Amino acid sequence: MNIRLLIAFLLSIVLFVHENASAQFCGTTGAFSITPTEGCAPLTVKVSNLKPKSESVAYAFNFDKKRDTPPAYNEVSTDSSFTYQLPGTYTILQFGSVGGTGFSQCKDVLVKEVRGPKAQITTCQNGLIQLEIQNDSIAGAYDYLTIDWGDGTQQIFTPGASGSLFLQHAYPTTAPRPDIKITGGYKDDSCQSSLKTTTLTSQTASDQLKDIRIRSVEMLPTGEAKILYQGIDKVPTEVLIDKGDGQFVGTGKSGQTAGAQSVTIGGLNPAQVYRFRLASKDFCDNVMESPIVSSMIIKEGAFGLDEIISVSWEHQPNTEKLLEYQLKRDGVVIFSSADQLSYLDKDVKCGTTYKYEIVAIIENDVRSYSAPVSLEPKTSTPSDVGEASVTVKDESTIATTVELTGEGLTSTYNLIVERAVLGNSDFSQISPPGNGSLQFDDTNVNTNQNSYCYRFKYKNACNLTSPDYSPPVCSILLKSGTAEIFWNADQPFTEAVDAYDLFVLDDSGNTQDIIPKQTSTSHTLDLGSETEFSFQIEAKDAGGRFLSRSNILKIRREPIILIPDAFTPNGDAYNERFEIKAYFISEFKMSVFNRWGEVVFNTSNLTDSWDGKIDSKEAAGGYYIYKIEAIDASGQAVSKSGSFMLIR
């Protein structure tokens, strides 16, 4: 049984046996020994399996008894030894199987601390020294701590429950400062040869007041400033404020507690910039002032556009380098910059109020937050639609496109499209309510019978509408005759047509040539040199702002004749007749012969077809011969002949 299967098996056994599988992986059915069971870090232990007839035995050397899941594959080992680098109490889980039945057992290993305690000293001119020992997991692991002051005196004490440990010692004022050594110890004298000593010299004395600094300044809309700072135990610290005159004065907010401290200063103007710093006095009456942190203000900017919110921000100089501004909208960062003091927010909508705040990120992980400001986008009345086009796509579809310029444009809108038959002033709306597209396809038209006119009006997201409808733009339908193409002569605009341009297109729709047609409404084709081509007519008004484009007309002059190779007139309504399909043919004649050369069918009408009968009687199955003589659209003779099969 491999380790992965064994882990799965262990999980199934535990969940089956126990109603609550949490912390139940440490069973009592295993058997193993640990040598040694405790010692000094780093500690190497060896495990020996004592379970008879066991197989696939594995160990998790750092198992959490409280977990409700089995150890992961990478937490499991079949090794018989393991080295613990750090101190602590560790649980070893053994598991395996005997005859298909799983077993498990847990035992603990104690790894003792040997590292030197963390400490720092404050030295005074009068010979006094204050020693601060961090009462963390290292110091707390020992039964006692020994301080060798370096002048022949020692001090032994037991670490407290919490907080830093402060000790004071006096040296002669003129005497050199000796090294101070701190060592942990155990009552049973274990780990004596492995214990590490922390040595502090006068050169390593810490200027602890530098650790006292403002972590964040937050201006509140209520006219208060919330200051979060890092304090040191037994070091009095007061918050100072500069209200704009360059002079720092006390706020009466002070403390002398270690860790994160929070104070609130009232009676301020959230729209004014203030500067803050801390003044601290240590054990030796040394005074230290912390770096200055300026508050931030954010306000509506001077720049205004439709459905755009302009914001700007200010602050006073900070002592430390400003790394970045972060602009938040409704609690989410939308913009960041190292030096820009304004921003245009275009991702806003009319009728919605947004809350903005600016955050200054200063080196050493310092933050300054402005009081939030609520703003709503503004807009103006939109202009009339001044540019539009219509394009005939096919016999039942006309596409309209509008281009917008001017003021009052918003990200969401309703473009109203109205239609009337050319020559009729009875316009009616055809666009759906809330039409938010500048392109609209009208699919309820018959361009073979009528030309249609369209006009447009714009309504923005703030419910402001353009004063009037645009001038109407009407459709053009391009058609072909035998040797020419032509389009409707009705004016597509209220004003006169400036000119028609005939676009010659390739198979991909790319323009190959533009033929100016002035005000003509037809074009004669060159049938001798052109066999396949596409055309589109474009009309523009005198100002060039309104366009009407016809449908794309594709003309292929090469004759196409499609002839089947068999047909089955058996009454199943499928492939019942011998039918010819022909394109670009002006004259047509076809004869069908049997194998003896007798004419069994003859027609001059392209729409006629043979039903497989001769003199109203069914013709025999087999091969027949056809002969086709035709004249194409350009007057050229076309002949085709061949055979096909009649299948009964």
From TrEMBL:
Matches recorded under InterPro entries: FN3_sf (IPR036116), Ig-like_fold (IPR013783), PKD_dom_sf (IPR035986), T9SS_type_B (IPR026341)
Pfam families hit by this protein: CHU_C (PF13585)
Cited SUPFAM superfamilies: Fibronectin type III (SSF49265), PKD domain (SSF49299)
Signal sequence segment: 1-23
Superkingdom of origin: Bacteria
UniProt KW keywords: Signal
Name by which UniProt lists this protein: Gliding motility-associated C-terminal domain-containing protein
Organism in which the protein naturally occurs: Dyadobacter luticola
